[in-house]
């Protein structure tokens, strides 16, 4: 009868079983499915709360390895087709929101903000494409067309730095054809209040921030406008 049993890596290997390392989603998924259909126990190998892989019947794992190789070309083609479709849709959305945006700038946004497995805003599944494009472009402008990174290196708090360069971001957005500009800039009262708060915040003592750290900062929460 099928069941999933958690075992440590030093547990004895059941007779007729073999180990399938974690790492290839296709193999893991089909190993689970085939073992379930065969109504055999599946052993999940865990070490200090970290899953290392699966123990399943040798015949099933052997078949999974074979199937993975046979379907690799087809699966890669399918992934490429989906990627091409995503890029096409994203490019169209960028052109719709920023019709005057230079092609070189658009390509940089696509390459960086929408890079696969980057966990950046362009790859999140919780936002609409319209929102992802706007946030990715704002982040690109912030880092490449303002003094934002220099302000961070000088010790200015992140939120204060964002308020300081808000007008610069808004200007570039409008130059690129975004009629409404930055949403916070459009809200006069909100923008004024943010500026007042930023002025009251004195910069921290300058700290050494490497280029690598600044780029990492962009890849996560820094995509929030």
From TrEMBL:
Domain DUF2293 stretches: 94-177
Stretches for region Disordered: 177-225
Record InterPro entries: DUF2293 (IPR018744)
Composition-biased stretches (Acidic residues): 214-225
Transmembrane segments: none
Skewed-composition ranges (Basic residues): 191-207
UniProt cross-references to Pfam families, sorted A to Z: DUF2293
PANTHER family: DUF2293 DOMAIN-CONTAINING PROTEIN, PTHR38113
Protein name: DUF2293 domain-containing protein
Source organism of this protein record: Phaeosphaeria nodorum (strain SN15 / ATCC MYA-4574 / FGSC 10173) (Glume blotch fungus)
């Amino acid at each position: 009868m099928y069941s999933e049993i958690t075992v440590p890596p030093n547990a004895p290997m059941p007779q007729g079983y073999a180990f399938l390392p974690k790492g290839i989603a296709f193999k893991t998924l089909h190993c689970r499915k085939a073992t379930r259909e065969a109504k055999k126990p599946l052993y999940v190998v865990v070490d200090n709360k970290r899953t290392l892989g699966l123990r399943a019947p040798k015949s099933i794992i052997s078949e999974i390895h074979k199937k993975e190789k046979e379907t690799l070309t087809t699966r890669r083609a399918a992934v490429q087709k989906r990627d091409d479709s995503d890029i096409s849709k994203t490019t169209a959305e960028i052109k719709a929101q920023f019709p005057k945006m230079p092609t070189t700038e658009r390509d940089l946004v696509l390459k960086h903000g929408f890079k696969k497995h980057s966990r950046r805003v362009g790859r999140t599944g919780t936002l609409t494409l319209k929102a992802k494009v706007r946030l990715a472009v704002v982040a690109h402008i912030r880092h490449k067309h303002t003094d934002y990174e220099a302000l961070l290196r000088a010790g200015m708090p992140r939120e204060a730095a964002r308020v300081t360069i808000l007008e610069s971001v808004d200007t570039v957005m409008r130059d690129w054809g975004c009629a409404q500009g930055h949403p916070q800039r459009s809200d006069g009262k909100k923008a004024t209040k943010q500026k007042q708060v930023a002025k009251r915040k004195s910069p921290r003592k300058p700290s050494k921030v490497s280029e690598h750290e600044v780029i990492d900062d962009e890849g996560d929460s820094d995509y929030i406008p």
